[in-house]
Design a protein that fits this description.
By secondary structure, the chain is mainly beta. Strands 4, 5, 6, 9, 13, 14 and 17 form a seven-stranded antiparallel β-sheet that branches. Strands 28, 31, 34, 35, 37, 38 and 39 form a seven-stranded antiparallel β-sheet that branches. Strands 18-19-20-25-22 form a five-stranded antiparallel β-sheet, covered by helices on one side. Strand 29 (about 425-430) and strand 30 form a beta hairpin.
């Protein structure tokens, strides 16, 4: 803090520091009316220790006042900005907020010129027109100056002062951006991308109607090294100004649709969706809801679906409240209501501290379906009462119609004595008659064979001395109940399967709704005249 005060004194004398960027110049040419604070730069990332399974981080921020009035920055009262920090991960097409910090309370403003030519205020109690002020990651992680998010109304900019736990410190993760250590472990997520997001809330910025541009994001690098038991994160690339981190998802995958949703007379929400066919043949439906500054918050998210559409593996994730914030961390209830999928938490009347989507946080929702996507209109159910109705926005969702089975080959067979790889398929699936056919080709002629089935997939080379690869795992049963088939002169197989009687080690079971089963053929073979065995590849069948 002492160094910041000394620099502030030098800037009162007009010694503006920093560089003026071309992008910032464009922002400065059209100044907002009133004070307007933005995040000009996410400047760095500090990594702290790990307590239990949780690691802690803090992000550096440089604010810029791009308005035509000075921004209040007075210590020890309610006339200064507060600064929030968030951590995100993008992995396998899913964008999630994995951590959030408490809020750094501003105490003095330098008068630098990162974004615009600085007109110094001559005091640390106000950020001058066009001026910037740096708060390093260490300063933003200083526990004694971090206050609860729950005491802030981001739409009005109002907050309590003195703030709760002011001056208090704790262990390495207390109040800082908390992230499950496994969420940044390279062994668990080797191909993941990470992002840091920062947001300023200030009362005079909000009063001027300039609160919708106060958030920016930057890519975080994960080198794989560790600091005090935490995987290190550091900033890389440049800061994307005046947009939330959900835009990072779209920057990686342009098929992501992003919509701005304003609650009339209140705050702003951002909703992103992406719907596409996944590797297993089913369609993936991914959604993100970011609450920028709505005090009313969000308690439900509803996506319409076509009649008869299958809904599988519905889930959600959210950033955990911590360090004795009062908000619950209870998962929302996910329901398939026939014509819609809905996630919801308690109402405000039932629980004022329910796990609603509050300002500065991002919740992710998802499910799978056998039905292809089309345009839908989602509804965001608001948490607190107000005059405006629940807002809606366009997303993608599944079309109607009875779902059909999905047949997908997987696993790679080893060549047999013919130099060919045996191939299996499932065909003529009749869910009414409860029958199906399994067929195989490219097999040695006149060889004994039988089919096997399991819920689980695996890849085991040369099991029991075989020259093949077993593609099933877990409990494995013979589909034909021990009957041995013969490939005949054509080296092919065809058999009828009763879907109400799939043999398993503990007895036959019926295929249930929305279940996936895996099948494979074992067969006799020979290598250099010696008897052995081999397998086809595997086939996965999802039954509606």
């Amino acid at each position: 803090m002492q160094r910041k005060v000394l620099l502030s004194f030098s800037l009162v004398l007009g010694l503006g520091l920093g560089l003026l960027t071309d992008a910032a110049s464009a922002q400065c040419a059209n100044q907002s009316n009133g004070a307007d604070v933005i995040v000009g730069d996410v400047s760095g990332c500090s990594t702290y220790g790990t307590v239990g399974s949780i690691s802690a981080y803090s992000l550096g921020t440089t604010s810029c006042n791009i308005g035509n009035a000075e921004l209040l920055w007075t210590a020890n009262n309610t006339n200064h900005p507060v600064i929030g920090q968030n951590i995100y991960r993008l992995n396998d097409g899913r964008f999630q907020q994995i951590g959030q910090s408490w809020l750094k309370h501003g105490f003095t403003a330098l008068q630098q010129n990162l974004c615009c030519p600085c007109q110094s205020s001559g005091t640390g109690a106000r950020l001058g027109v066009g001026c910037s002020d740096p708060y390093g990651s260490g300063l933003n992680g200083q526990q004694s100056g971090l206050g609860p998010r729950s005491e802030v109304n981001a739409f009005t900019g109002a907050f309590l002062y003195p703030f709760g736990t002011q001056g208090q410190t704790g262990n390495a993760i207390y109040k800082r951006a908390q992230v499950e250590r496994n969420d940044v472990d390279p062994a668990s997520f080797p191909n993941a991308l990470y992002y840091g997001e920062a947001q300023y809330v200030a009362p005079d910025d909000a009063a001027a109607g300039n609160g919708n541009n106060n958030v920016s994001w930057r890519r975080l690098n994960r080198p794989g090294s560790q600091t005090s038991g935490s995987f290190t994160l550091s900033t890389t690339g440049s800061t994307a100004r005046m947009q939330p981190a959900v835009m990072a998802w779209q920057s990686v995958d342009p098929t992501v649709d992003v919509q701005i949703v304003d609650v009339p007379g209140e705050g702003r929400l951002w909703v992103a969706s992406n719907c596409y066919q996944g590797a297993g043949g089913t369609f993936r439906y991914e959604y993100v809801v970011f609450n920028l500054n709505s005090h009313r918050s969000v308690r439900s998210f509803t996506v319409p679906i076509g009649g008869g559409a299958a809904v599988l593996n519905a889930g959600m994730s959210w950033p955990r409240s911590h360090s004795n914030e009062p908000y619950a961390n209870t998962a929302w209830t996910a329901q398939n209501l026939g014509d819609r999928v809905e996630w919801s938490t308690d109402t405000f009347a039932a629980n004022q501290n329910a796990n609603a989507i509050r300002w500065g946080t991002t919740y992710s929702f998802w499910f799978e379906s056998t039905n292809a996507p089309e345009a839908k209109v989602a509804t965001l159910g608001l948490f607190r009462a107000g005059a405006a109705a629940d807002p809606t926005t366009s997303v993608c969702g599944p079309v109607g119609g009875n779902p059909t089975p999905i047949v997908t080959n997987y696993c790679t067979a080893n060549p047999n004595s013919l130099g060919l790889t045996g191939e299996i398929t499932a065909q003529n699936i009749d869910m009414v008659a409860r029958t199906m056919e399994l067929a195989a080709s490219n097999l040695p002629p006149n060889a004994f064979a039988y089919s096997i089935a399991s819920f689980d997939q695996a890849f085991v080379q040369n099991p029991g001395g075989s020259t093949g690869a077993l593609c099933l795992g877990g409990a494995i049963g013979r589909v034909v109940g021990g009957t041995i088939l013969n490939t005949g002169g054509t080296g092919t197989l065809l058999e009828a399967v009763n879907l109400d009687s799939i043999p398993q080690p503990t007895g036959s079971v019926a295929v249930g709704a929305a279940e996936a089963w895996n099948f494979q053929y074992w067969h006799r073979d020979s290598v250099l005249g010696f008897s052995t065995s081999n397998f086809t590849n595997g086939v996965r069948v999802w039954f509606p």
